[in-house]
Structure formats: C-alpha cells, structure tokens
Backbone:
C-alpha cells in the first residue's frame, strides 16, 4: 500500500502559486477557501490526528497566540483527515481538561477543517505516504492577502512546530513586502535588513561609495539598512 502510494505523482502548490481553492465544512461553519480570506494573510496548517498529544500542545499554543497573529492581519485555519464530530469533541476536551505549560481552559476559535475524504490534504500535498498513509504530516502554508502561497514548511509526525518561528515568518514576509527588502539569517524585528541588489537601489559604485542614504555595503552585493522595530511595527501591525 505504502509503495503503491509512493509511486503516485504528488500534487502540491509551490511557493508563488495561487493557493488551491476548495470548499469544506469546518468547526466554524462552511468555508470557501481562499476566497473567504481575501485581504488577509492565512496560515493553513495540517495536523496528523485529533486526540493525539503533540497535536494537542500545538492547538493550545496556536489558540493562545491567535490574537497575536490577528494583530498582523493573519488568520489561522487547521485541518486533519478527521471528521467534524471528532474535531468538536477533541476541542471540547482541550478546553475542559488539558493543561500544558501555563495554558489551560484554552478555547480554539479558529476553524478546523473536516477532511475525512482527504480531498484538501491531497490537493495540498499534506499526505506523505512514506511517513503515514492515513494521516497528514504537520504542513504549514502561509498564504498572502492575494491568495498566493508565500511559504511552505513541513514537519514530521513526531515533531511539534515552533510557533514563534511561524509568527517570525509572517512578520518577515510582511516586512519584506512593505519595505521591498529581504531578511537575513535569524532575522528578528528590529534587526538590519538586506536591501535589493544594485540597480534597484543605487549603482554598485554608489552603494560602495556610501552614496545611497541609510545603506551600508560590505561588498557590492551585500548591503543592509536599519528598519527600527517601531517603524516596522507601524507598517505591518493592524491592531
Ligand atoms: C501526536 O500528535 O502526538 C502524534 C500524532 C501522530 C503520530 C505521532 C504523534
């Protein structure tokens, strides 16, 4: 079975592609994706199964951080190949019983998609047969306000995601868009950013001679500038 599935061509969107559209039932009602989210950033993420421990810690963490994501115009949408009643029962159990770190009484109010048919998981390449033929891996798709896939991250079943990293990804993408820059390794808000290559921001000579305002170059191809955290926040934070 696994070998047969592994031989099948895998469908999945790529970075820069329009997010594949679908309609689905969710714990918050019907969803028409990504049309319902035009004008917003969305994190569409899958988890292997309801009533499993790592997924429980992930949902508690994501739900606790939801307002922080919304402050950056970003909505969360979960998915597993479980049905609606399983989702509802699991989320109720999380609220009524689960304690993880300093989190308890956590209500998950973002939608969780019923994908018993695996229609959506298959469309998004969330089933990786070498890992598991009947469960989605921990996939993360960051989709921009125009419905374009901007980042894809995959984790295996055994590895819980780092949600601070997902928030950093959202802020980095939004900063890159707002200021037409790129972000270096391990960038954090307030760190210097990479300015675009010579031509779009001064000639190589002007950059190296220090003639481009606020830009510092180590070599013709490696120039940075400061975007103070407050300026970045003012550009990307919506609440
Ligand atoms: C978990 O979420 O705990 C889990 C789910 C599937 C496989 C292994 C762990």
Residues:
């Amino acid at each position: 079975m696994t070998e047969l599935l592994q031989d099948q061509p895998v469908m999945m969107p790529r970075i820069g592609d329009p997010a594949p559209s679908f309609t689905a039932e969710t714990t918050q009602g019907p969803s028409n994706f990504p049309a319902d989210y035009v004008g917003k950033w969305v994190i569409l993420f899958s988890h292997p199964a309801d009533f499993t421990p790592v997924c429980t810690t992930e949902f508690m963490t994501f739900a606790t951080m939801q307002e922080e994501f919304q402050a950056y115009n970003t909505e969360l949408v979960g998915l597993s190949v479980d049905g609606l009643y399983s989702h509802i029962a699991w989320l109720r159990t999380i609220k009524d019983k689960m304690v993880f770190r300093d989190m308890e009484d956590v209500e998950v109010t973002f939608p969780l998609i019923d994908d018993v048919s695996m229609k959506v998981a298959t469309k998004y390449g969330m089933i990786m047969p070498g890992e598991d033929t009947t469960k989605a891996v921990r996939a993360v798709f960051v989709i921009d306000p125009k419905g374009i896939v901007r980042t894809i991250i995959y984790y295996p079943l055994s590895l819980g995601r780092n949600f601070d990293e997902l928030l950093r990804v959202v802020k980095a993408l939004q900063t890159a868009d707002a200021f037409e820059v790129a972000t270096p390794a391990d960038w954090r808000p307030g760190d210097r950013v990479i300015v675009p290559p010579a031509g779009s921001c001064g000639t190589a000579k002007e950059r190296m001679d220090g003639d481009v305002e606020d830009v510092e170059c180590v070599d013709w191809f490696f120039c940075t500038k400061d975007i103070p955290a407050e300026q970045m926040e003012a550009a990307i934070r919506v609440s």
The chain has a mean pLDDT of 94. The radius of gyration is 20 Å. Helices lie at 2-7, 53-70, 84-97, 119-123, 163-179, 204-208, 229-236. The longest strand covers residues 74-80.
